Automatic annotation (TrEMBL):
Annotated signal peptide: 1-18
Entry GO MF terms: carboxypeptidase activity
Alphabetical keyword list: Carboxypeptidase, Hydrolase, Protease, Signal
Coiled coil: none
Stored Pfam families: CarbopepD_reg_2, DUF5686
InterPro entries linked: CarboxyPept-like_regulatory (IPR008969), DUF5686 (IPR043741)
Annotated protein name in UniProt: Carboxypeptidase
Transmembrane segments: none
Record keyword Hydrolase present: yes
Amino acid sequence: MRSPLLLIFLLFSFSICAQQPLRGRIVNKQTGDPLAYAKITYGDKEDLSKIDGSFSITLTEEETQLSISYVGFETQNFKVSKNVEFVRIKLTPKIEGLAAVTISSGENKANAIIAKAIARKPKNDPEEKLQKFNFKNYNKFIVDNESAALEMASDSTNLEIGTVINSAASYFSEKVSKFYYSQKEGLKEEVQALKTAGFEKPVYEILSLSVNPFSLYDKDFRIFDTDYAAPLQNSAFRNYSFKILDTTTTSQPAYVIYFKPKRQRAVAGLEGILYLDTETYAIQQAKAQLLGAIKLEIDQDYEYFPEENLWFPKTQKITIRPGNGDQAISVFGGVISAGTLQKKESILNNILAPGKSDPNLFLNVTSTNFDIQLNSNETLETSAEILVNSTAISREDSFWEENRTEAISSQNKFSRQRAERLIKEKEVEEKISFQKSVSTGYIPVGFWDFDLGKFFKFNNYEGIRLGFGGKTNQQLSDIYSLNGYLVYGTKDEVFKYNLGTAIHLNKATETDLKFNYTRDIVETGSFSYLQGKNDFSIVEPRFVNINFFYQHRTLSSGLTQRFGSDFKTELQFSKSDISQTRDYSFLLNGQEFSEYTLSEATFSFLWRPFAKFLKTPNSTNLIEKGYPKFTGEITKGISGVLGSDFDYTKFGLLVEHEIKRLNQSRTEIILEGNYATGDVPLTHLYHALPNSPSREGILSRFSVAGRRSFETMFYNEFFSDKQAMLHIKHQLRPINVHRLIQPELVFISRHAIGDISNPERHSMPFKSLKRGYHEFGIELQKILVGFGLGAAYRYGPYSMPNFNENFAFKFTFHLDI
């Protein structure tokens, strides 16, 4: 009898405690348009409507007096019974008046206030006014289902099965951090404590999610990988319209300014209200919303420091729920924005999938700053933006109790228990590990990660290249890993292979000692940096049409080391035995070399000074790319060492820059220079990444465009020992055909110049680039599932006599993984 009695008691208690909310909508009586942020006064409480005019309040009295007011409309007062569930309130427009507002300059009073707020940003924005400051922060991150509470009360016997089947997601984490700011280094975070419910290993990736913008003073602010135009940026009047709603009557009164996006399809923006101090024009409080496929709500409160006459961010709450609008909005693995789809994979794709329609699902992030120290001299000695303390995941309960700014409620505890259960039941941790491997080009099977790039390829020399390869993962060992591949060409009928190992000397600094033996082919004149390269690609456009390779057998050893977060290096020593796949020989001192040995020492680096990093006790993870990015390499060929035939030196430098704009347009600039001096055979010189087969007819040369290749340059047409290349791509704002179809129009300009010393040393004819090579291209990318079309035209000194030969027609393929 005990369990039934307990169930009856729970049901009775729940029905007694439950309170029926009064829901409603406030609209313009004449037009029917919703009135955003209308003031609702009931008893001694106040609330505001949402941007669609809706509201939900809880009434405790049998009958309550409501007052609904909105600037420019007649105030409406009426009584409502506790039993009423929904009301539709129609306000009548009137001549606008706002006695409390004393600013009279200009036709739009709100614009005048905003202009003053923008002008006073250097005195009001903590990051502009203060040289240094620090504060502690408590953060709670929850993904759960509100219907769970009903399940707990009404069907406790079915709880475990029901929640696993019916819940779309569940996640619970807590974090205590200390933030350090200086105008030189920016805002850095030290994570002092971290709990992620249900995971055996800490989910550090959650720390890189841009959930909590520090303040609305920034030029733009980021929420879940989408940049929004801030309402107080210098171009605010281009992106937002403003309206005065009210003035507060507190000891430090504020103007209540409503802001609404003007160009939502062009520039991502939120709709909300700013409480601006009537004396300093500083932000006291802010609310912002976005309604669409996802309902997003942001509340920010600021604390006043009288000595500095400064309002400082204090608390922030972000809530996300499913919606039913037509805006292209997703949470993890996508964006929260309208008219844009900036793809970015996230570890939480397996926890909260975009497009879920469960109305009870919600995401809630609360963040509170405390122990705020203005003008403090404390600093955080790290080049990473986020540093995870080595004791963060093992903090005692006493530390949490001391640093929590709000207690863990019974509902929080239930959410945490559900997260632990569901993450285990759904094998979320295993899915995350699988997804992370696939995003880098591997499929994990037990202790072995299969390399997706080794299963199938095609080129003119090998024909179909079939095989398999990969590397061991941590299931085998944390100290070392083994790697290798075996492939076979159906046309040349030769097996190629690689065997190697990496000994992990220091995980925190990514210090690895590597040994490899490779027998394979390499494109003649190609150049690849040891650092900064990404071997995995779903499509390798140029590889298909390459027909000039050399064979090599290479034994190499190397040492990788990360210095700080943004500078990674590799030092490699190698010995290669080279032979040719076609009739080529290198002429030197009266001898012809078609087979030769090269011994090389190579130093390569990758420097990302503007990127942002997350540093954990065992790794350094990139969380925001940041540009420009620099990749460099120096190679010394040493004659006489291990039978090496030639002495030479090679240099390479690659600079990549990207400019992203709030209107979703993007400009990419790539500058590369290569230089070789000494006795260098053609196999180890440079080409400019040609990507056009030398066949008659435009359609016969139809192929897939590369990222930084010259689409009209024929294979084996040019070789250089010194060259410079410039690629400029400008992508216009995506064309919004459908939420899933948003093609991008891209204009491309490519240029190359170079030369070669002693061309007579090489037994085959080719051209130099000394007169400069130029081509112009246009692409319509991502027409459907990553596929698009493009065209390029060759002009200038190396243009061909016939239009046909100067023109290239291409497929484009861009797919983000």
